[in-house]
Amino acid sequence: KVIDPSLVYNGKGIFEKIDNISQITNGYYVIVGYSSTSGNVNVMPNNFTGSYSNASEITLNNSVIYNPTLDLVWNIQENNGKYNVSNNEDEFLDLSTSTNINLSTSPVLLTLQNFDVENDYIKITKDGTTRSLGINTATTPYRFAGYNTSLTGQRPTNLYKLNSTIWNGTAWSHGIPTSSVHAIVSGNLEIASDLS
Questions:
Q1: What is the pLDDT of residues 71-94, one digit of tens each?
Q2: pTM
Q3: Distances from the Cα of 84 to the Cα of 12, 15, 111, 141, 147, angstroms
Q4: Backbone φ/ψ region at 162: left (φ over 0), alpha (ψ -120 to 50), beta
Protein backbone atom coordinates (compact mmCIF):
# COMPACT_ATOMS: atom_id res chain seq x y z
CA LYS A 1 0.00 0.00 0.00
CA VAL A 2 1.39 3.42 -0.95
CA ILE A 3 0.76 6.14 1.60
CA ASP A 4 -0.27 9.47 0.07
CA PRO A 5 2.63 11.86 0.82
CA SER A 6 0.15 14.69 1.42
CA LEU A 7 -0.95 12.88 4.59
CA VAL A 8 1.23 13.95 7.48
CA TYR A 9 2.26 11.77 10.45
CA ASN A 10 0.85 13.43 13.58
CA GLY A 11 2.62 11.60 16.41
CA LYS A 12 0.22 8.65 16.64
CA GLY A 13 0.65 5.32 14.93
CA ILE A 14 1.99 1.77 14.96
CA PHE A 15 5.40 1.09 13.36
CA GLU A 16 6.42 -2.48 12.48
CA LYS A 17 9.83 -3.74 11.35
CA ILE A 18 10.20 -4.51 7.68
CA ASP A 19 12.46 -7.38 6.69
CA ASN A 20 13.08 -6.65 3.02
CA ILE A 21 13.34 -3.63 0.72
CA SER A 22 10.41 -5.02 -1.27
CA GLN A 23 8.24 -3.81 1.65
CA ILE A 24 9.38 -0.19 1.29
CA THR A 25 6.64 2.09 0.02
CA ASN A 26 6.29 5.86 0.21
CA GLY A 27 5.54 6.69 3.81
CA TYR A 28 6.80 7.14 7.35
CA TYR A 29 9.59 5.17 9.03
CA VAL A 30 11.71 5.02 12.17
CA ILE A 31 15.41 4.30 11.55
CA VAL A 32 16.63 1.84 14.19
CA GLY A 33 20.33 1.17 14.69
CA TYR A 34 20.63 -1.19 17.61
CA SER A 35 18.40 -3.34 19.77
CA SER A 36 19.64 -3.75 23.31
CA THR A 37 19.11 -6.85 25.43
CA SER A 38 16.64 -4.87 27.57
CA GLY A 39 14.19 -4.75 24.65
CA ASN A 40 14.86 -1.10 23.93
CA VAL A 41 16.06 0.19 20.57
CA ASN A 42 18.28 3.09 19.58
CA VAL A 43 16.67 5.25 16.92
CA MET A 44 17.93 8.10 14.75
CA PRO A 45 16.37 11.53 15.43
CA ASN A 46 15.62 13.62 12.36
CA ASN A 47 16.58 16.99 13.84
CA PHE A 48 20.30 16.61 14.47
CA THR A 49 22.89 19.32 13.89
CA GLY A 50 26.54 18.78 13.13
CA SER A 51 28.09 15.78 11.40
CA TYR A 52 26.40 12.90 13.24
CA SER A 53 23.18 12.11 15.12
CA ASN A 54 23.17 10.93 18.73
CA ALA A 55 20.80 7.99 19.14
CA SER A 56 17.63 8.18 21.21
CA GLU A 57 16.59 5.08 23.12
CA ILE A 58 12.94 4.05 23.05
CA THR A 59 11.03 0.98 24.18
CA LEU A 60 9.69 -1.72 21.89
CA ASN A 61 6.34 -3.18 22.85
CA ASN A 62 5.84 -6.68 21.35
CA SER A 63 8.42 -5.81 18.64
CA VAL A 64 6.40 -2.74 17.65
CA ILE A 65 7.03 1.00 18.10
CA TYR A 66 3.92 2.87 19.27
CA ASN A 67 3.42 6.61 18.79
CA PRO A 68 7.01 7.79 18.25
CA THR A 69 7.48 11.53 18.53
CA LEU A 70 7.74 13.58 15.33
CA ASP A 71 11.49 14.06 15.77
CA LEU A 72 12.03 10.28 15.43
CA VAL A 73 10.04 9.73 12.23
CA TRP A 74 11.44 9.99 8.68
CA ASN A 75 9.50 10.26 5.42
CA ILE A 76 10.86 7.95 2.69
CA GLN A 77 9.78 8.63 -0.89
CA GLU A 78 10.79 6.59 -3.95
CA ASN A 79 12.37 8.63 -6.75
CA ASN A 80 13.27 6.74 -9.97
CA GLY A 81 14.53 3.64 -8.15
CA LYS A 82 16.35 5.65 -5.45
CA TYR A 83 14.93 7.25 -2.31
CA ASN A 84 14.64 10.63 -0.63
CA VAL A 85 14.76 10.37 3.18
CA SER A 86 13.49 13.55 4.84
CA ASN A 87 12.22 14.95 8.12
CA ASN A 88 9.04 16.94 8.76
CA GLU A 89 10.92 20.19 7.94
CA ASP A 90 11.69 19.04 4.34
CA GLU A 91 15.35 18.51 5.18
CA PHE A 92 16.95 15.53 3.45
CA LEU A 93 19.37 13.00 4.93
CA ASP A 94 22.75 13.20 3.18
CA LEU A 95 25.90 11.09 3.50
CA SER A 96 29.27 12.52 2.51
CA THR A 97 32.52 10.83 1.54
CA SER A 98 33.70 11.02 5.16
CA THR A 99 31.87 9.87 8.29
CA ASN A 100 29.76 13.03 8.20
CA ILE A 101 26.02 12.98 7.71
CA ASN A 102 23.92 16.10 7.47
CA LEU A 103 20.52 17.49 6.62
CA SER A 104 20.28 19.18 3.23
CA THR A 105 17.60 21.59 2.02
CA SER A 106 17.89 20.01 -1.44
CA PRO A 107 16.67 16.48 -2.21
CA VAL A 108 19.37 13.78 -1.94
CA LEU A 109 19.04 10.42 -3.72
CA LEU A 110 19.97 7.45 -1.53
CA THR A 111 20.06 3.72 -2.23
CA LEU A 112 18.32 1.27 0.11
CA GLN A 113 19.28 -2.38 -0.16
CA ASN A 114 19.08 -5.61 1.80
CA PHE A 115 22.28 -6.08 3.80
CA ASP A 116 22.01 -8.96 6.26
CA VAL A 117 18.79 -10.79 5.49
CA GLU A 118 19.01 -12.93 8.63
CA ASN A 119 18.79 -9.78 10.80
CA ASP A 120 16.49 -7.79 8.47
CA TYR A 121 19.09 -5.03 8.02
CA ILE A 122 18.53 -2.40 5.35
CA LYS A 123 21.66 -0.59 4.16
CA ILE A 124 21.29 3.13 3.34
CA THR A 125 24.03 4.45 1.03
CA LYS A 126 24.68 7.35 -1.31
CA ASP A 127 25.96 6.78 -4.85
CA GLY A 128 29.44 8.13 -5.44
CA THR A 129 30.50 7.59 -1.83
CA THR A 130 31.90 4.62 0.05
CA ARG A 131 29.67 5.32 3.04
CA SER A 132 26.59 3.72 4.57
CA LEU A 133 24.47 4.88 7.47
CA GLY A 134 25.30 2.93 10.63
CA ILE A 135 25.39 3.26 14.39
CA ASN A 136 28.55 3.26 16.47
CA THR A 137 27.90 1.54 19.81
CA ALA A 138 31.43 2.25 21.08
CA THR A 139 30.57 5.93 21.66
CA THR A 140 28.58 7.39 24.55
CA PRO A 141 25.91 8.13 23.61
CA TYR A 142 25.63 5.85 20.61
CA ARG A 143 25.76 7.81 17.35
CA PHE A 144 24.60 7.48 13.76
CA ALA A 145 27.07 8.53 11.06
CA GLY A 146 28.43 7.44 7.68
CA TYR A 147 30.72 4.41 7.88
CA ASN A 148 32.49 2.22 5.30
CA THR A 149 30.00 0.27 3.21
CA SER A 150 30.89 -3.04 4.86
CA LEU A 151 29.97 -1.41 8.22
CA THR A 152 32.94 -3.12 9.85
CA GLY A 153 32.85 -2.29 13.56
CA GLN A 154 29.44 -0.57 13.34
CA ARG A 155 25.90 -1.83 13.23
CA PRO A 156 23.61 -1.43 10.21
CA THR A 157 20.04 -0.13 10.37
CA ASN A 158 16.56 -1.61 10.49
CA LEU A 159 13.48 0.24 9.30
CA TYR A 160 10.16 0.31 11.13
CA LYS A 161 7.27 1.33 8.89
CA LEU A 162 4.06 3.15 9.83
CA ASN A 163 1.41 0.47 9.49
CA SER A 164 -1.72 2.08 10.87
CA THR A 165 -4.42 4.58 10.05
CA ILE A 166 -6.38 6.68 12.57
CA TRP A 167 -10.09 7.51 12.44
CA ASN A 168 -10.59 11.00 13.90
CA GLY A 169 -14.39 10.98 13.76
CA THR A 170 -14.45 12.28 10.18
CA ALA A 171 -11.72 10.60 8.08
CA TRP A 172 -8.89 8.04 8.12
CA SER A 173 -5.39 9.56 8.47
CA HIS A 174 -3.62 7.16 6.09
CA GLY A 175 -6.31 5.50 4.00
CA ILE A 176 -8.91 2.88 4.85
CA PRO A 177 -7.63 0.08 7.12
CA THR A 178 -7.19 -3.40 5.68
CA SER A 179 -6.38 -6.81 7.12
CA SER A 180 -2.70 -5.77 7.07
CA VAL A 181 -3.05 -2.10 8.15
CA HIS A 182 -4.00 -1.48 11.79
CA ALA A 183 -7.00 0.73 12.56
CA ILE A 184 -6.88 3.14 15.49
CA VAL A 185 -10.21 4.74 16.39
CA SER A 186 -9.93 8.15 18.02
CA GLY A 187 -13.42 9.47 17.32
CA ASN A 188 -16.98 8.28 16.74
CA LEU A 189 -17.09 5.52 14.13
CA GLU A 190 -20.15 3.85 12.67
CA ILE A 191 -19.41 0.73 10.59
CA ALA A 192 -21.99 -0.44 8.05
CA SER A 193 -19.88 -3.09 6.31
CA ASP A 194 -16.87 -5.37 6.73
CA LEU A 195 -13.56 -3.44 6.47
CA SER A 196 -11.59 -6.31 4.91
A1: 999 999 999 999 999 998 999 999
A2: 0.83
A3: 23, 19, 9, 27, 19
A4: beta
